[in-house]
Amino acid sequence: MSLTAFALNCSLKTPNDDEKSSTDRLLADLLAALVPHGVKGEIVRVLEYDIKPGVLSDMGKGDAWPQLRKKIVAADIFVLGLPIWMGQPSSVAKRVMERMDAFLSEADDSGRMPAAGKVALVAIVGNEDGAHHCHAECFQALNDVGFTIPANGGVYWVGEAMGSVNYVDLPGTPEKVVEMIDMAASNAAHLAKVLKAGTYPGVPQ
């Protein structure tokens, strides 16, 4: 069974920034780990799009969110990638989750939201503590709007506090991070196959 993954890079670095993105590297590592499980993926940097603030699926003229929303709900696996800033998920990631709030009012006749039957992973990088806290915030929001979280669905790398070495600077991926990525990819692909074969029945309204 072929599957698709769509990843959003919620880095604060602009598309024109010459500095490489650690979030991009972690997402690339994760999508590469999904390939052996029959998953083809795409990574998009959110700041390449004009995502308006709000809690609707379309905030009107100039809003680029509908393009990304379409790809999110079309994919079997959605990956939210973000850096930690001041112990919190990046503001870009928070805007993405705020826009998904619209899913709550877009349920079908059986109460299933657009993300029903879709799997979500969260990938986090940072040079400060807070990965588990950020995972908790993101998973709670993603689950609220209908995504299914697989076992060990969070991957992260956190460097030395206030250090200058970022994930993108590492000569190789640490063994424990590789194990974490491989487990998340395997579990996500397995769960996505199960849900694609037979999604949630929902509750008749």
UniProtKB/TrEMBL annotation:
Cited Gene3D superfamilies: 3.40.50.360
Superkingdom of the organism of origin: Bacteria
InterPro entries xref list: Flavoprotein-like_sf, FMN_Rdtase-like_dom
Pfam (any one): FMN_red
GO MF annotation terms: oxidoreductase activity
Leader sequence segment: none
Domain NADPH-dependent FMN reductase-like: 7-159
The protein's name: NADPH-dependent oxidoreductase
Biological source species: Mesorhizobium sanjuanii
The organism's taxonomic lineage, starting at the top: Bacteria, Pseudomonadati, Pseudomonadota, Alphaproteobacteria, Hyphomicrobiales
